[in-house]
């Protein structure tokens, strides 16, 4: 545990030190967000590419930690590098969605080649926790999971400190689960990632002096998707789908609701709107800080439920999962999340 705390602290200090440097670099390369429409919350030009500081802290801490780099870690390093390159390019010159998908697909392949993939799904109706092998389906399922979570964190990045804070809460959730079930590699990765995010957050929390940009949001999404496959499991041979979906719940549900809302209203799925949770909280009269803190609390509650799900048997774990999902859907329906809000 002492070594994990040290990894956390080193990563945090590096990220805190790198961020001002990245901020200056962002202005030099014109990686700047200029408010152009009503969906933008900020009112002045803001430097992007803040995720580069998180990446640098994560990468250096991982490479120079004690012990050799594992095959899984090499796959994660390669994948994150591809994602960061995509993010930097997008922060400077906006990429089209299909261009981003090419980078994300390549990054997901890095995980597959290194052996990180969804191999089993726990059978919720078997009292012995028997796991169902999914064979070839593990490849498309892994790719869909990685691309989905990568984009979910990106879409929720709408307020100062929002995506970074939710990413931190998700990483801590997976860290706790990894410690409880002796998933050493996942614990190391989440300790380093948590430190890197926390070092960046003081610059990103309202009022922010730098944004994560695509570089950071996509990076966090990718890393959390990869690490959740590595650590959020009940044993070496069982993937408990309840845990990552709850631990990363807020960005997942907000994204799914946005897709449903746009589809129901005959609008392109990739078209932006002001129907996201953070927009609705602002429209209720809350300040940015109040809205972000509320979303932090929601994410923390879902993370806590994910930890509880790991402490109970499979049947009750899935029952808890279904109950939470139904509750969220009912609340979203009543609140009008499926109605388009321009």
Explain this structure to me?
Keywords: Cell membrane, Membrane, Transferase, Transmembrane, Transmembrane helix. This is Undecaprenyl-phosphate alpha-N-acetylglucosaminyl 1-phosphate transferase. It is found in: Cell membrane. The chain crosses the membrane at residues 6-26, 46-64, 70-89, 101-118, 130-149, 161-181, 187-205, 217-233, 239-260, 291-312, 318-337. It is a multi-pass membrane protein. Helices cover 68% and strands 4% of the residues. With 342 residues, the protein is mainly α. The protein has one domain. It has a two-stranded antiparallel sheet. A two-stranded antiparallel sheet has the order 3-4. Strands 5-6 form a two-stranded antiparallel ribbon. The model is unreliable at 123-130 and 232-241 (pLDDT under 50).
Give the topology:
Layout: H1 2-28, E1 32-33, E2 46-47, H2 51-64, H3 71-92, H4 97-113, E3 120-122, E4 131-133, H5 138-155, H6 162-180, H7 184-204, H8 213-231, E5 233-235, E6 238-239, H9 242-247, H10 249-264, H11 277-283, H12 288-311, H13 314-334
Antiparallel strand pairs: 1-2, 3-4, 5-6
Helix pairs in contact: 1-2, 1-7, 2-3, 2-7, 2-8, 3-4, 3-8, 4-5, 5-8, 5-10, 6-7, 6-8, 6-12, 7-8, 11-12, 12-13
> How would you spell out the order of helices and strands?
HEEHHHEEHHHHEEHHHHH
Strand content: under 5%
Structure summary, number of beta strands: 6
Sketch the major β-sheet: 2 strands, antiparallel
Alpha-beta content class = mainly alpha
Transmembrane segments: 6-26, 46-64, 70-89, 101-118, 130-149, 161-181, 187-205, 217-233, 239-260, 291-312, 318-337
Pfam families: Glycos_transf_4
InterPro entries: Glycosyl_transferase_4, Integrin_alpha_C_CS, PNAcMuramoyl-5peptid_Trfase_CS
Membrane topology: Multi-pass membrane protein
């Amino acid at each position: 545990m002492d070594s994990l705390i040290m990894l956390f602290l080193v990563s945090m200090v590096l990220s805190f030190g790198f961020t001002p440097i990245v901020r200056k670099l962002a202005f030099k390369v014109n990686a700047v967000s200029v408010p152009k429409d009503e969906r933008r919350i900020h009112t002045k030009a803001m430097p992007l590419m803040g995720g580069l500081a998180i990446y640098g802290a994560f990468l250096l801490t991982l490479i120079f930690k004690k012990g050799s780099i594992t095959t899984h870690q090499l796959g994660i390093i390669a994948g994150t590098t591809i994602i960061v390159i995509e993010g930097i390019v997008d922060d400077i010159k906006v990429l089209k969605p299909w261009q981003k998908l090419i980078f994300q697909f390549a990054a997901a392949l890095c995980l597959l080649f290194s052996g990180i993939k969804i191999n089993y799904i726990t059978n919720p109706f078997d009292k012995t926790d028997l796991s169902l092998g999914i064979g070839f389906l593990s490849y498309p399922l892994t790719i869909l999971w990685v691309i989905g979570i990568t984009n979910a964190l990106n879409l929720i990045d709408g307020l100062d400190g929002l995506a970074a804070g939710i990413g931190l809460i998700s990483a801590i959730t997976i860290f706790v689960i990894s410690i409880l079930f002796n998933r050493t590699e996942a614990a190391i990765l989440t300790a380093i990632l948590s430190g890197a995010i926390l070092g960046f957050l003081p610059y990103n929390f309202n009022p922010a002096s730098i944004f994560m940009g695509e570089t950071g949001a996509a990076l966090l999404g990718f890393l959390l998707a990869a690490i959740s496959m590595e650590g959020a499991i009940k044993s070496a041979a069982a993937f408990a789908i309840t845990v990552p979906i709850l631990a990363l719940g807020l960005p997942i549900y907000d994204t799914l609701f946005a897709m449903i809302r746009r589809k129901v209203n005959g609008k392109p799925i990739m078209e932006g709107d002001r129907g996201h949770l953070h927009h609705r909280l602002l429209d209720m009269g809350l300040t940015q800080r109040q809205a972000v803190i509320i979303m932090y609390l929601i994410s923390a509650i879902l993370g806590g439920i994910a930890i509880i799900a790991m402490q109970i048997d499979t049947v009750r774990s899935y029952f808890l999962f279904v109950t939470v999902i139904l509750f969220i859907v009912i609340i979203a329906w009543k609140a009008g999340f499926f109605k388009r809000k321009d």
